[in-house]
Design goal:
alpha/beta, disordered N terminus, 351 residues, 6-stranded antiparallel β-sheet, 5-stranded parallel β-sheet
């Protein structure tokens, strides 16, 4: 009897250990099934990417109003040109910055932050508080702007948009590809990494607006079908590059802000499933703004569809996804409230 009881207890303990281990893996791995939707409290703001602490080992200012940070940690994953990372600022705000260092430097990331005085506060906090010797938390890199193999490239960068392009130049050079870079900015003093770019000679054309006006994009009209065009910078520049490139020539863009929704935004209704309350979302506001009128503690951070903090489950309704984060699978039953809208008249949220 004692032996059978011991066996039963052992089996029960073993099952409990396995269950705990499985749940732990789901939590650590950011499984979309964790947290479970049946919890009484609203589930929101989770990210499938873990935070990695890293040490700021270098802080420089490569141009007026530009902060360049190098961080190190043995836990930083490998990355490829075009990747960016989520950075958690001391206040808890999450911002996204392109990696502009050398992918071969294992355990080391470099980012650059342009100070935007009239922005939402993230860049001001970064410039004021991210000091050498401090710890910084990052999520593993994502890459929605990958450098695809090609015999030739035409790169166009505007201002801080040079950051994802810089490692692409090094990769194109290492691959023996033909390439050119057109780099515009307000002034030479405001344009980072000019000394490094000068080493590439006449393949780089620098166009400070206070000296030469806006960049001349007409050479793009002669781009051949085997040339890939890559552009990062302000929205007007990217629109102009798309217009200048010949039909059939691939144009790859990296946006630091979501594409404008245009005048087609329509009002819709959000139903909070847990309370049954109905919220009207105006055409001129985000679903996040409307939801926070009823639930002011709803978490958010970037407000641009990048970080995933305001992700919520959608129980019914058609979603107009406008983010740059979620995968196709994730978009089947969730949305980012800060940028995405309803494609139907009503959305039911698990809130």
């Amino acid at each position: 009897m004692r032996r059978s009881t011991a066996v039963a207890v052992g089996a029960l303990a073993g099952a409990a250990w396995l269950a705990k281990r499985a749940v732990g893996r789901r939590i650590d791995g950011g499984s979309p099934l964790w947290p479970l939707p049946a919890l009484e409290s609203p589930v929101s703001g989770y990210s499938p990417r873990r935070w990695i602490p890293a040490l700021i080992v270098s802080r420089t200012e490569p141009a007026d109003g530009v902060l360049c940070l190098t961080v190190q940690s043995p836990d930083l994953p490998d990355w490829a040109p075009g990747a960016h990372v989520d950075v958690q600022l001391p206040s808890g705000l999450v911002r996204q910055y392109s990696l502009c260092g050398d992918p071969s430097a294992r355990g080391s990331y470099t980012i650059a932050v342009r100070l935007v005085e009239d922005g939402r506060g993230g860049s001001r906090e970064a410039h004021a508080q991210l000091l050498e010797g401090a710890e910084l938390s990052l999520r593993p890199p994502r890459n929605r702007f990958p450098l695809l193999p090609a015999p030739a490239y035409a790169f166009v960068a505007g201002g801080i948009g040079i950051t994802p392009v810089l490692p692409m130049l090094r990769a194109a050079e290492a691959a023996g590809a033909t390439w050119t870079l057109l780099y515009g900015g307000r002034s030479r003093a405001s344009m980072p990494f000019l000394p490094e770019l000068a080493a590439y000679g006449d393949r780089v054309t620098v166009v400070p607006r206070d000296e030469a006006g806006l960049p001349d994009l007409s050479p793009l009209s002669a781009t051949g079908p085997d040339t890939l065009v890559y552009c990062c910078g302000p929205a007007p520049l990217m629109s102009a590059v798309e217009a200048a490139a010949p039909a059939g020539v691939p144009v790859h863009l990296e946006r630091f802000a979501p594409a404008a929704s245009g005048s087609g935004a329509k009002p819709f209704t959000v139903e909070l499933h847990r309370s049954g309350r109905l919220i009207e979302v105006a055409a001129t506001e985000s679903a996040l703004t409307a939801v926070r009128r009823e639930l002011p503690n709803t978490p958010y951070s970037c407000e641009q569809g990048f970080c995933g903090t305001c992700r919520h489950r959608v129980l019914s309704g058609d979603i107009d996804h406008r983010d740059t984060l979620l995968t196709d699978g994730e978009r089947e039953d969730s949305m980012l409230l800060c940028v995405s809208r309803a494609a139907s008249d009503r959305l039911v949220l698990d809130l």
